[in-house]
């Protein structure tokens, strides 16, 4: 899968979507390392900082975790969907 610099969507979001798709398909298995940033940068022809931003996006989505000096790994069980936003009702006490 390739990235489209003309799409209007930031490249880091496109890359995060590609990696998320690979995680959900099982290509990148739980607790397994995903390719290094340098490799992804070379594979997609994008800047290293763009890959780093995609990794941050994936961490924010709850799909990967990073071990300093080791790499980024798929979480043991990726979330099935985005968490539901909390409402004011859920903060009220029910006495």
From TrEMBL:
HTH gntR-type domain span: 9-77
Acidic residues bias: start-end ranges: 86-95
Matches recorded under Gene3D superfamilies: Winged helix-like DNA-binding domain superfamily/Winged helix DNA-binding domain
Stored SMART domains: HTH_GNTR
Keywords: DNA-binding, Transcription, Transcription regulation
Domain of life: Bacteria
Region listing for Disordered, in residue ranges: 72-95
InterPro entries according to UniProt: Bact_HTH_transcr_reg (IPR050679), Tscrpt_reg_HTH_GntR (IPR000524), WH-like_DNA-bd_sf (IPR036388), WH_DNA-bd_sf (IPR036390)
Name by which UniProt lists this protein: GntR family transcriptional regulator
Species in which this protein is naturally found: Streptomyces sp. 900129855
Phylogenetic classification of the source organism: Bacteria, Bacillati, Actinomycetota, Actinomycetes, Kitasatosporales
């Amino acid at each position: 899968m390739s990235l489209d610099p003309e799409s209007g969507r930031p490249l880091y979001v496109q890359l995060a979507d590609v990696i998320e798709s690979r995680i959900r398909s099982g290509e990148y298995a739980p607790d397994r390392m995903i390719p290094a940033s340098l490799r992804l940068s070379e594979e997609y022809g994008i800047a290293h900082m763009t890959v780093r931003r995609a990794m941050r996006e994936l961490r924010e989505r709850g799909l990967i975790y990073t071990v300093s000096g080791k790499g980024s790994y798929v979480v043991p069980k990726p979330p099935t969907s985005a968490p539901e936003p909390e409402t004011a009702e859920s903060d009220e006490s029910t006495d």
